[in-house]
Amino acid sequence: xxxxxLFVIGVILVIIEMFSITFxxxxxxxxxxxxxxxxxxxxxxxLTFITFIICALILxxxxxxxxxxxxxxxxxxxxVNSLIGKEVIVSSIELTDDTLGTTKVYGDEWTIxxxxxxxxxxxxxxxxxEGATLYVTNI
Length: 139
What we know:
By secondary structure, this protein is α+β, with helices and mostly antiparallel strands. Helices cover about 45% and strands about 25% of the residues. Helix 1 packs antiparallel against helix 2.
């Protein structure tokens, strides 16, 4: 009776895992099925319990890193944050302040500010964005 109960519980847990993304139900379900086989073959509740614990731990520990990799997602930069790291060309420089100028990015004109003097038509890299100002450094 224990073997049948464990087997049914294991199958139910594997089915529940299909709707979950944690792998926990899958490992416990497989451990239940393996413990059910041991219970059916030996009839020993202690051996069944030990089999269940060992199988569940081995399955969980051996695939912990695998599950982490599956659930990780890379952030895709979009909007203005996608401009960070982009090379732009200095379109104009302020006459009174050579660290301030403008550039065109995808047809839009942006104010650029640098800690170093800007040179007209020189490529610079966007390091930070605050409002409508791109902070740049020389290449």
